[in-house]
Inverse folding.
């Protein structure tokens, strides 16, 4: 991104709360499949950046953020070799690998990792080798997200249930338009939550999202694969981190870094593990989704419209689903599940309170 574009994005970030979460598609807009969490040999992945570029390009992705720990992989040379205007694009990114000392935790530390998407410079975590003493998780998130925004990027809170690290209280100060991973396809990050040894519930990442939305936060849900491994290996921990299992579909008027980052920032995308939408329209009156599946596809689809507190407001079977907003829901989002267990999640529509 140029300095002019970074300045423009910073202005958008300051006015995030005024931007609509979703809008009706216009004829100039397109859907682009992308991944926002990817690792190469530049940190703890097993393959060089060019191998990642080829894999995602050849598997139908339109854009890719390579988000190595504490390093930005320059996308320009990769775009020169593998990019194609309107078809495939690499965009700068980084994972800020923050850890916070917590003597009460089984690991004696908790994890507060955040991606910077579209950043123009590296953001280093607090502390020695990313391990900070004397700060809270909330303070760690606040500092790193502010630094990501100052570097011209948008922030994505990664795998909150990794090592059972993140609590609701750690996230209540997140700024609006922050992205939250609810469908990280790494098989060791505990997306579904669980009870701990004392019987206390740790919510699923989706339920955590609902709790934040119910408190008036406007956060956008992300699916990604947290890729670490392309090489064939047997009985290896990298089997946990294969690519292509979860992604985002972004609606933008062009496949450029600016257009993709802006669309992510305003929430004009949905997360998926295998369900694709042909149509998505939403405003403060109605939400409509139409599944994209060929006529000979025998999958069946169920759409749940979810409101404040994670309450299911309506359930609709079929390839098309609509929900007409009454005005007392707080917010409404859609969760679509197919008969094979794959999902898609739309972003929330905030329902204005009466009299506002």
């Amino acid at each position: 991104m140029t300095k002019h574009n970074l300045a423009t994005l910073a202005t958008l970030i300051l006015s995030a709360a005024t931007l609509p979460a979703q809008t009706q598609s216009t004829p100039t807009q397109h859907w682009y499949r992308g991944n926002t969490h990817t690792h190469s040999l530049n940190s703890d992945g097993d393959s060089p950046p060019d191998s990642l570029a080829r894999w995602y390009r050849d598997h139908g992705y339109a854009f890719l953020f390579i988000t190595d720990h504490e390093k930005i992989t320059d996308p320009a040379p990769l775009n020169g070799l593998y990019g194609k205007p309107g078809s495939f694009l690499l965009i700068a990114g980084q994972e800020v690998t923050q850890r916070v000392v917590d003597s009460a935790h089984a690991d004696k530390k908790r994890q507060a990792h955040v991606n910077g998407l579209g950043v123009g410079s590296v953001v280093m975590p607090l502390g020695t080798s990313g391990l900070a003493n004397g700060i809270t998780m909330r303070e760690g998130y606040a500092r790193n997200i502010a630094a990501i925004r100052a570097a011209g990027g948008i922030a994505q809170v990664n795998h909150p249930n990794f090592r059972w690290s993140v609590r609701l209280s750690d996230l209540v100060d997140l700024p609006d338009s922050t992205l939250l991973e609810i469908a990280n396809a790494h098989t060791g990050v505990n997306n579904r939550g669980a009870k701990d040894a004392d019987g206390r519930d740790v919510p699923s990442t989706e339920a955590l999202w609902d709790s934040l939305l119910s408190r008036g936060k406007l956060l956008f849900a992300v699916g990604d694969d947290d890729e670490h491994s392309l090489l064939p290996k047997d009985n290896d921990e990298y089997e946990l981190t294969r690519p292509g299992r979860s992604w985002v579909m972004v609606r933008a008027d062009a496949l450029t870094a600016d257009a993709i980052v802006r669309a992510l920032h305003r929430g004009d995308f949905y997360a998926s593990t295998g369900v694709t939408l042909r149509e998505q329209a939403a405003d403060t009156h109605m939400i409509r989704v139409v599944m994209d599946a060929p006529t000979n596809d025998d999958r069946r689809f169920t759409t749940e419209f979810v409101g404040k507190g994670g309450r299911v407001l309506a359930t609709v079977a079929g390839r098309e689903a609509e929900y007409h907003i009454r005005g007392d829901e707080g917010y409404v989002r859609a969760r679509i599940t197919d008969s094979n267990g794959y999902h898609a999640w739309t972003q929330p529509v905030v329902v204005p309170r009466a009299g506002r």
Notes: The first strand starts at residue 30 and ends at 35. Confidence is low (pLDDT under 50) at residues 1-21.
